[in-house]
Specification:
Blueprint lengths: L12 H19 L5 H5 L9 H19 L9 H9 L9 H21 L6 E4 L8 E4 H27 L3 H8 L7 H5 L5
Antiparallel strand pairs: 1-2
Helix pairs in contact: 1-5, 1-6, 3-5, 3-6
């Protein structure tokens, strides 16, 4: 776990779930830290994924989920929506890392507002059927857990791609960005044997 999420700092279940979601967003944001636009768009692994594309995909995905959860469902049986989803992994004309980061910050703030305004995480929404899910009624708790799962999965992809690009792992980026102070490693390992 690159950054700890302190449960006592967030109080209730809702706060804890939002904190875990934001921790995963942080992993995605840190994955582009210090990269050039070219590096952020590079696909150095066996997959066609880039760090910038993952960031955009997760931001668009979260926005789509919140849209669906608030009663304006994304219809993935509509070929236009499916094509939009497929393009979510690529930065298009006029998009760059800074614009995607700004969009993701707006999405995150919107998610926080909507979730904080809910009377209960037991509130439900209807998930429409999609090619990968039969759909049906779901709780907001389920929806938040799904968002955490999706962000975590892609944060892991971003970690691998970033490390392939320049050798920096998740902890390197945590310390470099100041998300956590780097520990005094000599104090943790003790004196070296001569």
């Amino acid at each position: 776990m690159p950054t700890p999420v302190a449960p006592e700092a967030h109080g209730d279940e809702r706060g804890a779930l939002l904190a875990y979601l934001d921790a995963q967003r942080g992993g995605l944001r840190r994955a582009v830290h210090g990269l050039t636009e070219e590096q952020a768009r590079a696909t150095p692994s066996a997959s066609a994924l880039s760090v910038a594309g993952l960031l955009k995909h997760v931001a668009q995905g979260e926005a789509g989920w919140i849209r669906t959860m608030t009663g304006d469902p994304v219809d993935f049986n509509d070929p236009r929506e499916l094509a939009r989803w497929e393009r979510s992994f690529l930065l298009e004309d006029g998009e760059d890392v800074a614009s995607v980061l700004a969009f993701y910050a707006e999405v995150a703030a919107g998610t926080e507002r909507v979730v904080r305004a809910l009377p209960s995480l037991d509130e439900t929404f209807v998930l429409p059927a999609a090619p990968w899910d039969a759909g049906g009624e779901r709780s907001w708790r389920w929806g938040l857990l799904h968002l955490i799962e999706e962000a975590a999965r892609h944060a892991g992809h971003a970690d691998v791609i970033r490390e392939t690009l320049d050798g920096k792992g998740a902890f390197d980026l945590v310390f470099e960005t100041g998300a956590l102070p780097e520990p005094d490693w000599s104090a943790l390992t003790g004196p070296s044997a001569a």
